[in-house]
Design a protein that fits this description.
binds magnesium ion; binds adenosine-5'-diphosphate; single chain; six-stranded antiparallel sheet; Beta-Lactamase; Heat Shock Protein 90; Helix Hairpins
């Protein structure tokens, strides 16, 4: 498409044309109305003065007969420049006045008429137009009084000339303005198109330029940029997940395959096969757990779970998780204490919050065991607590284990990240990722703090507004979902 074609097709240009036509029509109408009114005014003025003059002459005629009338007409004729006077006999013979010829038949009809005329002292070529009134006087005499219309014609010409300029100017300025405005808009739209093309081609970091005027294009660009931000984030997340899956699930799958191949090649008896199969099942269970965790994280991150959020009591969740993990903690020689004195309502998803807290408790049990004083008889404590702090609810798990070094705290929240010293423990490195995703889903956050010694992992969630409908009362509620070990 040529540049001009593109310009003409734009909405801005079409709008300019519509406005221009409306303005031009309006200008034409205004001009017509003005001309018509001026003409009407001039004619009215002419008829009034002509009527007054005729009644003056009629008076003269009444007083002094035709002689006085002719005298008066002649004296008027000498003075006046644009006025016409003529007195004739019944047969049309001129008795006085300043007109030598008229359009044929004008004198025959009494009343108003427009006519061409000549004056006796002017050449053949100078013919004028005039508005005249003819009256018949007693005795068959005719009196004609009129005014030249040259002045009116000139005025009309001036108005028309001005009108032509005005309309021309409106069209030229309108078109120029339209083209200017359209080109500006077009330039910005073109720039936007280029950027979106680049984004579509794969450069997700591209953003639309914002002029800063806050106009509709700026608003559109801001919204689109927010959308691009979100798309970029999602794409990055997706890429990360697929990278992680490719990397971290490949190892257990390869291990599985190797083990089966090994068994086929070297195992001779049933017991051997059985052992291999058991190990295979265990490995598959681990894989399934990892997949489930990944799915749960994806669900939390996509915000889908926001749909079924209700007011849930974080204290109750803390007690439930505490109860569930107490035997495990006992087995490992740890003391699990739950401190959840008062109800702490959170607007959230019970299942996901329980799972997130369970992950933190699971970590505490797994990693706090390594602390030396847990080994010399004295039981190390793990404290699970639910508290309200202002408009936030804090679900915390504090242990006295080795803790996480400051420099690793950001990293461990990422998917599949496990610290080197934790490799001896089972796990997939997804527990903290899920806890963090659940916190974000609830517009809260997961903090890893130093418990000196040990780790204090805190899930901070916004308190439920009081008006929120509480979860249906306990007896009807489905049993607490049991969190799985990741
Ligand atoms: N309470 C804790 N004390 C010490 N280290 C911890 C604790 N919780 C988590 N970590 C470290 O963070 C890593 C990530 O934890 P997580 O995401 O739950 O994965 P996993 O428990 O499967 O290893 C763990 O491998 C461990 O190195
Ligand atoms: Mg864990």
């Amino acid at each position: 498409m040529t540049a001009l074609g593109k310009l003409i097709r734009t909405t801005t240009f079409k709008l300019t044309l519509v406005y221009l036509s409306i303005f031009a029509l309006f200008a034409i109408f205004l001009l017509g109305y003005f001309t018509w009114n001026t003409q009407r005014l001039i004619n009215q003025q002419i008829t009034e003065t002509v009527d007054a003059e005729i009644s003056g002459f009629a008076e003269q005629f009444r007083q002094g007969g035709i002689r006085k009338l002719v005298q008066s007409v002649d004296s008027h004729s000498r003075r006046a420049t644009s006025s016409l006077y003529l007195v004739t006999t019944f047969s049309g013979e001129t008795l006085g006045g300043n007109v030598s010829s008229l359009s044929p038949g004008v004198l025959d009809n009494v009343g108003w008429a427009e006519t061409l005329y000549r004056r006796p002292d002017e050449g053949e070529s100078t013919e004028g137009r005039a508005l005249v009134r003819v009256v018949q006087l007693p005795g068959g005499f005719r009196l004609l009084v009129g005014r030249d219309l040259e002045e009116e014609r000139r005025l009309r010409a001036i108005i028309l000339e001005a009108g032509r300029w005005l309309i021309g100017l409106v069209i030229v300025l309108g078109l120029a303005g339209g083209i200017f405005a359209t080109r500006r808009v077009l330039k910005r739209v073109d720039a936007m198109t280029e950027t979106t093309k680049a984004i579509m081609a794969g450069d997700l970091s591209g953003r639309l330029a914002i002029s800063g005027t806050g106009d509709e294009l700026d608003r559109l660009a801001t919204h689109l940029n927010t959308m691009f931000d979100r798309i970029e984030l999602l794409m990055r997340g997706l890429k990360e997940v697929s990278d992680n899956i490719a990397h971290d699930l490949k190892t257990p799958l390869t291990r599985l395959q190797n083990r089966c191949e090994e068994a086929l090649r070297h195992t001779q008896n049933e017991a051997g096969y059985r052992a291999t199969l058991e190990a295979t099942i265990e490995e598959s269970e681990g894989l399934i757990r990892t997949f489930n965790a990944l799915l749960m994280i994806a669900r939390a991150e996509s915000g889908q779970a926001r749909d079924n959020m209700v007011a849930v009591d974080a204290s109750e969740i803390a007690r439930g998780v505490g109860e569930l993990y107490e035997p495990l903690a006992d087995d490992k020689g740890l003391e699990l204490i739950v401190e959840a004195p008062a109800p702490a309502l959170v607007n959230g998803n019970r299942e996901l919050i329980s799972q997130a807290l369970a992950n933190l408790v699971d970590n505490a049990i797994k990693y706090a065991r390594q602390e030396p004083h847990a080994l010399n008889g004295e039981r190390a404590q793990i404290k699970v607590s639910a508290n309200q702090r202002g408009d936030r609810i804090e679900l915390a798990v504090a242990d006295h284990g080795p803790g996480i070094p400051e420099s690793d705290r950001r990293r461990v929240v990422e998917r599949f990240v496990r610290l080197e010293r934790s490799r001896s423990e089972p796990g997939s490195g997804l527990g903290l990722s899920l806890a963090s995703a659940v916190a974000h889903l609830h517009h809260g956050e997961l903090q890893l703090l130093d418990n000196a010694p040990g780790l204090k992992a805190t899930l901070t969630l916004p308190r439920a507004p009081l008006a929120l409908p509480a979860e249906s009362s306990a007896p009807e509620r489905s049993p607490n979902p049991v969190p799985v070990t990741l």
